[in-house]
Automatic annotation (TrEMBL):
<dbReference type="Pfam" id="PF00266">
    <property type="entry name" value="Aminotran_5"/>
</dbReference>
<dbReference type="InterPro" id="IPR015422">
    <property type="entry name" value="PyrdxlP-dep_Trfase_small"/>
</dbReference>
<protein>
    <submittedName>
        <fullName>Cysteine desulfurase/selenocysteine lyase</fullName>
    </submittedName>
</protein>
<feature type="domain" description="Aminotransferase class V">
    <location>
        <begin position="62"/>
        <end position="381"/>
    </location>
</feature>
<dbReference type="InterPro" id="IPR000192">
    <property type="entry name" value="Aminotrans_V_dom"/>
</dbReference>
<dbReference type="InterPro" id="IPR020578">
    <property type="entry name" value="Aminotrans_V_PyrdxlP_BS"/>
</dbReference>
<dbReference type="InterPro" id="IPR015424">
    <property type="entry name" value="PyrdxlP-dep_Trfase"/>
</dbReference>
<dbReference type="InterPro" id="IPR015421">
    <property type="entry name" value="PyrdxlP-dep_Trfase_major"/>
</dbReference>
<dbReference type="GO" id="GO:0016829">
    <property type="term" value="F:lyase activity"/>
</dbReference>
<keyword id="KW-0456">Lyase</keyword>
<comment type="similarity">
    <text>Belongs to the class-V pyridoxal-phosphate-dependent aminotransferase family.</text>
</comment>
<keyword id="KW-0663">Pyridoxal phosphate</keyword>
Length: 396
């Protein structure tokens, strides 16, 4: 009998996710499966509340464990990590903390971004900020256009981009963009909603100044919790848009203590912590971060990218419309452009669900997205079921 300890690292990880036995869950870009261990952790936490026996110091310790673990995941210092509710809040904290001047510019690409990395910056237009929306004719971030604008001596304060795009799920060369931002005195702000825990991210090597993540996708946990990295020097140049006890440094023995003296913001990104934390979500993501760190994001990245490449190759061989433009850097996603647009994509999605494959429709595309708990059997099923539908449609 094969035990979990006898398995390969990814087979052992897959065994922790019972949902993988029910269907090929290729939809981490919407939300992840969560491991079976989450049930015991959540029950233990809730029982403490039911029985009125809690140790809040231990809860705060859990939060710090998460802060330290996420810092390790992205190669940051824990002092550079703030706790948030979601990616949107993290991005808004950064945008609202900058001392904007009329005429300052933000570079982005609405063709490939989730709306929450657009409205955040559009909201600064009321302060005279110019949002320069670069077009993408092929589904890739227009890197050369961004580099050209940065090199023109313009007033670009921020370049914002997703590490892996909302659609069609491709990477941007963050190393090149980070170097150009540094040279131009601009800040690189990254939406890591589709990348944290899946793609290997190194904020130092990539020159990232701020990065927002949430826990319900690649970190394999609940909605309602996020993490924000802000490079210490950048964070300490920012004024928090709102402030609470956990964002200041005072001589205190209790979280409710107050000091009437001058306000001293906490060092680094911790000045952005506000109010009590999501302790249940912290307990759960502490567990999943430990699991992901044990595998290592370089290995996870290789695993998911290889599976995505196999999926894209298999679907292409069967005549399906894979969105994979020249020069694309594959990540963990594969998108299909279906003749007939959104309605046809929704029909294919229903067909996949009937055959135990979970995927998503985003705008006019059908999107598959892969995590460490997926394996080749999921890819083979997705290719076979999609090809079946495609061949049937071709005969109509």
């Amino acid at each position: 009998m094969t035990t979990v300890t006898d398995m390969s690292p990814f087979a052992a990880l897959r065994a922790r996710f019972p949902g993988t036995a029910r269907r090929a869950h290729l939809d981490v870009a919407s939300r992840s499966l969560i491991p079976a261990s989450s049930l015991d952790i959540a029950q233990a936490h809730l029982l403490e509340r039911v029985n009125g026996v809690i140790d809040k110091d231990r809860y705060f310790g859990l939060v710090e464990t998460v802060r330290q673990s996420f810092a390790r995941l992205v190669n940051a210092d824990p002092i550079e990590i703030a706790m948030t509710k979601n990616v949107s809040e993290g991005l808004n904290i950064v945008a609202a903390s900058i001392d904007w001047r009329p005429g300052d510019e933000v570079i982005l690409c609405s063709d490939i971004e989730h709306p929450n990395n657009l409205y955040t910056w559009r909201n600064q237009e009321r302060l005279g900020v110019v949002v320069r929306d670069l077009p993408s004719p092929d589904g890739l971030f227009p890197l050369q256009a961004a580099l050209d604008r940065l090199g023109e001596g313009s007033r670009v304060r921020v370049v914002t981009v997703s590490a892996t795009s909302f659609k069609p799920g491709l990477r941007t060369d963050l190393h090149a963009l980070g170097r150009a931002c540094r040279a131009a005195g601009a800040h690189l702000v990254v939406d890591a909603a589709q990348a944290a825990g899946i793609t290997h991210l190194d904020v130092e090597a990539m020159g990232i100044d701020a990065l927002a993540a949430s826990t319900q996708k690649g970190l394999c946990s609940l909605y309602g919790m996020g993490l924000l990295y802000v490079r210490r020097a950048f964070a300490e140049s920012l004024t928090p848009p709102y402030l609470a006890r956990f964002g200041v440094t005072i001589a205190a023995t209790h979280e409710a203590d107050y000091d009437k003296g001058p306000i001293h913001y906490k060092a680094g990104a911790q000045r952005f912590d506000v109010g009590n934390y999501n302790f249940l979500a912290s307990a759960l993501v502490a567990d999943t971060l430990s699991m992901l760190l044990a595998c290592g994001t370089p290995a996870i990245d290789r695993h998911v990218t290889a599976l995505a490449t196999s999926l894209a190759d298999g679907l292409t061989e069967r005549g399906c419309g894979v969105v994979r433009p020249a020069g694309a850097i594959m990540a963990n996603m594969v998108c299909l452009r279906i003749p007939g647009g959104g309605p046809a994509s929704a029909e294919l999605q229903r067909h996949l669900q009937e055959h135990r494959v979970q995927a998503a429709v985003r705008r006019d595309l059908l999107r598959f997205s892969i995590h460490a708990y997926n394996d080749r059997s999921d890819i083979d099923r997705a290719v076979a079921v999609t090809a079946q539908w495609h061949e049937r449609q071709s005969r109509v």
